[in-house]
Specification:
Blueprint (H helix, E strand, L loop, with lengths): L1 H12 L21 H5 L11 H11 L4 E6 L2 H16 L6 E5 H7 L3 E7 L11 E5 L2 E6 L15 E4 L3 E4 H6 L5 E5 L13 E8 L2 H11 L9 E9 L3
Parallel strand pairs: 2-8
Antiparallel strand pairs: 1-3, 3-10, 4-5, 4-8, 5-7, 6-7, 9-10
């Protein structure tokens, strides 16, 4: 049982989306009807001169739940990777290592942007967090609503609330072994149809990284209803 509780603690502490409840009060910061007004913040990457990135920003700003968007330079991405890595290490949970794989995938793309989002943003297309023992998946985040009544459909599955499921066989095989909690890169479906864009990946970040980035670029770091998602993408080869 201790392993279950520990996994749940990791899941709650390391979330990049602080609250899931609906809120009627969300601070709208750095938003504009002119996408280039936002893009000039990251002029070293020539965001304000690139029509592909302009289309991406324009698409992001009309998505329900997205309240701000900011282009990221390589230097700022390196800073975010460092902040994310160090803050995950400082959690110091015994027997668990937290690794954000997705942030490095985002940084491998030609372009990267950050969005601030409210709880109204649609759920991710897959589990953000995956708990692993080596290559074996021990548990993962779930978004699909589930009734708490009746036995689970799969006897190998143990649900912790409605947000996390663990696998009995994975837990049995991981007794006494250190586990890793991965932030996985996910699709961002709304950008997959934008002309000139390919290889889109997205990832959430932990709360400390979200607050650090928010303070630097002027978002409201004290609003508990805002979270951050990083998105990376390449241009289509002509």
């Amino acid at each position: 049982m201790a392993a279950y509780v520990l996994a749940f603690v990791v899941y709650m502490v390391s979330r990049g989306k602080p609250l899931q409840r609906e809120s009627s009060r969300v601070s709208l910061v750095h938003t504009s009807s002119n996408p280039n007004e936002l893009l000039r913040v990251s002029s070293p990457l020539n965001y304000d001169r690139d029509p592909v990135v302009g289309r991406v920003i324009h698409r992001l700003l009309v998505i329900r739940g997205v309240v701000a968007c900011h282009g990221l330079t390589r230097q700022r991405l390196r800073m975010l990777i460092h902040t994310e890595t160090m803050s995950n290490r400082h959690l110091r949970l015994p027997g668990l290592e937290i690794v954000n794989e997705g942030i490095r995938e985002v940084s491998s793309r030609k372009y990267a942007v950050a969005i601030a989002h409210a709880p109204q943003l649609r759920h991710p297309p897959g589990p953000i967090l995956v708990i692993c023992n080596g290559k074996q998946i021990v548990g993962e985040e779930v978004w699909k609503p589930r009734s708490n009544k009746g036995p689970p459909e799969d006897s190998n599955v143990i649900f912790l609330g409605r947000g996390l499921k663990l696998y009995r066989d994975g837990l049995k095989g991981s007794r006494g072994r250190p586990l890793k909690v991965f932030y996985r890169a996910l699709r961002f479906p709304e950008l997959e149809t934008v002309r000139g864009v390919r290889d889109v990946v997205s990832v959430t970040v932990n709360t400390l990284t979200h607050m650090h980035l928010s303070r630097i670029i002027g978002w409201d770091a004290n609003n508990p209803n805002l979270g951050t998602v990083l998105i990376g993408f390449n241009e289509t080869v002509q």
